[in-house]
Amino acid sequence: MSALNANHISMTFDEPNGNRVEALQDVSFNLKQGELLAILGPSGCGKSTLLNIIAGFLAPTSGAVINGTTKLTHSGPDRGMVFQQGALFEWMNVAENIAFGPKMAGVSSEETSKIVDDLLDTVGLQDFGDKAIYELSGGMQQRVALARCLANNPDIILMDEPLGALDALTREKMQSLVLKLWKDTGKTIILITHSVEEALFLGERLFVMAPRPGRIKQEYRLPFAEEGLTKDPREVKTSAEFIAKREEVLSMIWGMEEEIMGNNQAVGI
Amino acid sequence: MNMSLLESFKHYSGMSKSGINKQKTTTFGDTEAIGKGRFWSIISVFSLAVVWHFGSTLGFINPIFWPAPSTVWQQFITISQDGYRGFTLWEHIWASLYRILVGFSLGCLVGIPLGFAMGLSEKVRGWFDPIVEFFRPIPPLAFIPLVIIWSGIGERSKILLIFFAALWIMVIAARAGVSSIKLNKIHAAHSLGANKRQILQHVILPNSLPEIFTGMRVAMGVCWGTVVAAELVAANSGVGYMIMVASKFLATDIVVLGVIIVGLIGYSIDIIMRKIEAKLIPWKGKS
Description:
The complex is a heterodimer of chains A (269) and B (287).
Chain A (H helix, E strand, L loop, with lengths): L1 E13 L5 E13 L3 E5 L6 H9 L6 E6 L2 E2 L7 E4 L11 H11 L4 H14 L15 H13 L5 E5 L7 H18 L2 E6 L2 H7 L2 E6 L4 E7 L2 H7 L2 H5 L2 H27 L3
Helix pairs in contact in A: 2-3, 2-4, 3-4, 5-7, 6-9
Chain B lengths: L4 H8 L25 H20 L11 H14 L6 H32 L1 H14 L8 H8 L3 H25 L3 H9 L4 H38 L5 H10 L3 H29 L7
Helix pairs in contact in B: 3-11, 4-5, 4-7, 4-9, 4-10, 6-7, 7-9, 8-9, 9-10, 9-11, 10-11
């Protein structure tokens, strides 16, 4: 059974200066329930556009996203979203942020507080329920964002560079947390990232996207996410296979970069 | 260990720097490294008082132009005991304060929802934008003749002027508050299943509070200016009325007393609003 089905998605729009931008060209893929898909690509390859289409914030020019049998047209609580930063509600404390989804859905307050307590535990913020958002570090804020998204029990979790603003050490810890949550909840996850290492480590499946027009250049199935569940992340990331894949993907992205720069030189930039 | 007198003065006057700020060598432009400047405020008020007192007693200041502090204080005692022109001092103060509170509240009650609607709807924004932008730069006092024709010289005309003074400021503040929200937050709320009403109530409204509070503080200042000026034209009570009548008799001591009263009340209200702001919006400037 297919959980998420992207069917020939294309997206073109006109810029104010009259240029036509082909942000996505005929992107198709199937995602099974419980798969973790990482999407990697240079700026302008349309990965954020793709995520916004799946989330329902943008309508594609042609094509459709189908969840099971229903065509997705608007955003909804079936697809949870985790943003890079700044999407938490500063006027609510940690517990209130996590409780937002259930509260909006009219879940009873006893049940909500049980959900919140469980999730605070899951993301390792047991004693932080009544803390204000601005009192937390960046990594802790992203833990809250994960918990807030999980509180709604969505089918699919969409992550838009969720760890992009964190320091290297916190980032590594959070990568392990994402893997743990993926394993424990069995959710389907789509994660966008700029970091080659993160994409390889977290992506059970990996799309490398290329720009102009935005498209899936290469698809991988990778063993590292499974390995990361049991092994130390450093061990996985320093293994020969991991390093070999990293170099392969990096040189592919360098290739795209040269292509773009070459084009720019041709038009005189 | 007891603090020395100088140290405790430095502490209470906000002069002593703490923590890393003591160590900083680049302070120009670093607003965290400089103190609150309370020490200099104390010096400032004190020197003004000294200049005023000795300027008057030594005869440098002509009492016709600016009365001595002792005369103003005498007038304060007299008026607070005997009243002025048929009303006690407190009735004059309350008359002005009442007009401001009612006019200001009405301005908020109409201005904030209108600003919100302008921030959220293209039609409302398009419809009201020329109206708001046209009336905003016109000083409310320019409407005094019209307002008197419409509502006479009673309370209603003054409240209407205050209302106009507060209205445009609050419309613009609320509209800016709506636009200040990050799209991320709206998207997050949508994907958490909130409907439009819930997003308005739980996301857009609280997110706009910092701008609305700044608007309220600005509006409050403008309202004081407007009420005093309105009472200069048509009133039989209020601090502005006191000032106007006194000026006709060259009673500069009462004029100065009125000015000081307006200044002190305006300053106190701003301090109260800043305290409420800190309590209600602790996240301001920290995200």
